Amino acid sequence: MAKRVTGPEIEKLIQLLAKVPGLGPRSARRAALHLVKKKEQLLGPLADAMGDAYAKVRICSCCGNVDTSDPCSVCTDDRRDNSVIIVVEDVSDLWALERAGAMNTAYHVLGGTLSPLDGIGPDDLNIKGLIERVGKGGVRELIIAVNATVEGQTTAHYITDQLGGLDVKITRLAHGVPVGGELDYLDEGTLTAALRARTVI
């Protein structure tokens, strides 16, 4: 059995860091060591920031975004076109689309995708909230921006079926050749999707 070379506080820090996506046990140890070595410059401010986040972060009751206010800053931004809603799986997808700055619209975070094998059904996602938002009127287009996975496509079809009786245009993100991509390096599914979604030049 390996001997413990640090106190329980540092061990706990390492164990918690190892639970962060992208950090395994070895990366967590390196991160913890770096934080401890830079106690004044990093560890203290990080602890304060995490305490503030724990106390103030909320889930937006309208769209599902993470913010320090409810409704969030996206939902209260009157410069946005609220007649268009982009539907995403997770908050990270919302943030990615905002970084791209392609559209200035409203969002709706589902909180995942339908996955019967994992026991995730419609009641486990924020689909009911989306249907209620659209049902209130004023939404002319719903852009379904879920991942191009089996679960993502299943979720997109389910949402489309649920909104069948409402007067709203439903679109989805195009799939195909990425900007700067070379055909030789793409898989067959991506090439097939690109050919089916071809556009006029």
Can you walk me through this structure?
The structure is a single chain. With 201 residues, the protein is of the alpha/beta class. Among the domains are: 6-38, Helicase, Ruva Protein, domain 3; 80-172, Dna Topoisomerase Vi A Subunit, Chain: A, domain 2, CATH 3.40.1360. The chain contains seven helices and six strands; from the N terminus they run αααβββαβαβαβα. Strands 4-3-5-6 form a four-stranded parallel beta sheet. Helix 1 packs across helix 2 (25-37). The longest helix has 18 residues, at 39-56. The N and C termini lie far apart (66 Å).
Largest sheet: 4 strands, parallel
The side-by-side strand order for the widest beta sheet comes to 4-3-5-6
CATH class of the domain at 80-172: Alpha Beta
Please name the CATH topology of the domain at 80-172: Dna Topoisomerase Vi A Subunit, Chain: A, domain 2
Distance between the termini: 66 Å
Keyphrases for this structure?
single chain; 201 residues; alpha/beta; Helicase, Ruva Protein, domain 3; Dna Topoisomerase Vi A Subunit, Chain: A, domain 2; four-stranded parallel sheet; two-stranded antiparallel sheet; 7 helices; 41% helix
